[in-house]
Write a structure and sequence with these properties.
The chain is of the alpha/beta class. Helix content is 43%, strand content 22%. A hairpin with a 4-residue loop joins strand 6 and strand 7. Helix 4 crosses helix 5 and helix 6 runs parallel beside helix 8. The radius of gyration is 24 Å and the shape is elongated.
Length: 378
């Protein structure tokens, strides 16, 4: 998708002033064009979601706030029109509607405005959520299919919103990316998970591992390694019991640079897992360079087991590939005994899902860890 954001400039602006202000709001791939004496259009390409444009609009409005009111109109290609000229006109119409309604921005498609405003509002709250102790870590056990015992756990972040209740990461992590909160939020999650694991005396169970998701933005930070090992040192958590989970998208973000970072991580004893394997676009020629020890089969492939022949073939293939590369295989999203039986018969190493336990708060998971999981009911 492509978005055009259009707005009218204040009279006192000169191009040099404007360029300096907008440079902090735009990505390298965005384009700015003057479409009139006092009108400007920004072309935002490669949108993943409609509300990405609203987050940029909000940044621009805040950056220009000292220069008077700014009202921005947003039009989306190809939804609003496939004609570039019409797209700009529709964005200008939306800007006029925003001005008349005293709204900071409006989409040409009116229904999108309210949805985007809700997400942008959450973005503002998210900045304060950690300070207000609204974030929490939940944990879901991973089961050794050969032994039937807990082999480890995955740490899953939750936002305990004061009025909306628990918000799942698929709703707020994209917002965290747009508001540049993903790195501090990810570092908080890593630290808190290590602290919780220390409370469970995980070091007395050296075969158990704690898996924490790490975003591409975290890995791209120049001080990622310093932050990681500082957290391990301060929390006293053993590196060989930590497992960082990276999505295929993350692995392909900058594979050459990532190999160097992950090699250092691996040498210090931290395990590396590829999450949601099969849903991305990983190159096997790149993949073999990474010091990966585990694949996780995405739940979308597990859902159809054992009846769907395509899902069965994919799962069977991933297990074979992983074992051929001397890696363990974890299947997530296990909901039924039939799925479990299929995975066990194909030699899958570990399973994770609601069939065994939903994600639990730290105190409840500590009790589960002490008592163990119930064997499957047949």
């Amino acid at each position: 998708m492509v978005a055009v954001l259009s707005f009218r400039l204040a009279d006192e602006f000169v191009d040099s002033d404007l360029a300096g202000i907008l440079s902090d709001c735009l990505r390298a791939t965005d384009t700015v064009a003057r479409i009139g004496q006092d009108e400007l259009a920004i072309i935002q390409t490669d949108l993943k979601q409609y509300d990405n444009a609203a987050f940029m609009a909000q940044k621009i409005i805040e950056a220009l706030s000292t220069h008077g009111d700014v009202y921005i109109g947003i039009a989306i290609y190809p939804d609003d029109t496939r004609m570039p000229g019409e797209l700009v006109n529709k964005a200008m119409d939306a800007a006029s509607r925003a001005s008349r309604s005293s709204l900071p921005y409006c989409y040409h498609e009116a229904a999108m405005t309210a949805t985007a405003q809700t997400k942008v509002g959450l973005g503002g709250e998210l900045r304060l959520a950690v300070q207000r102790n609204e974030m929490a870590m939940f944990y879901q056990p991973k089961i050794d299919l050969a032994e039937g015992t807990i082999a480890g756990m995955e740490a899953l972040i939750r936002w305990c919103h004061p009025t909306r209740g628990i918000i799942l990461p698929e709703e707020f992590l994209p917002i965290a990316e747009e508001t540049e909160m993903i790195v501090p939020l990810g570092n908080w999650a890593l630290r808190q998970a290590c602290l919780d694991a220390r409370e469970w005396n995980l070091d007395q169970n050296p075969t158990l591992s704690l898996a924490v998701n790490v975003a591409a933005e975290q890995l791209s930070e120049p001080d990622f390694l310093e932050v990681l090992f500082q957290i391990l040192g301060e929390t006293g958590f053993e590196p060989n019991q930590l497992e960082i989970e990276l999505s295929e998208r993350t692995m392909m973000h900058d594979p050459v640079a990532l190999v160097d970072v992950l090699s250092v991580v691996h040498k210090r004893g931290v395990k590396i897992t590829i999450d949601d394997f099969g849903t991305g676009y990983s190159s096997l020629s790149h993949l073999k360079l990474f010091p990966v020890e585990r694949f996780k089969i995405d739940k979308s492939f597990v859902a159809g087991l054992p009846s769907d022949p395509y899902d069965a073939a994919i799962v069977r293939g991933v297990i074979g590939l992983g074992h051929g590369l001397k890696m363990d295989i974890v299947a997530e999203g296990i909901d039924s005994l039939a799925q479990l039986d299929f995975l066990r018969s194909e030699g899958c190493d570990q399973a994770q899902g609601y069939y065994y336990s939903p994600p639990l708060p730290a105190d409840e998971f500590g009790r589960l860890l002490a008592q163990g999981v119930e064997p499957p009911q047949r």
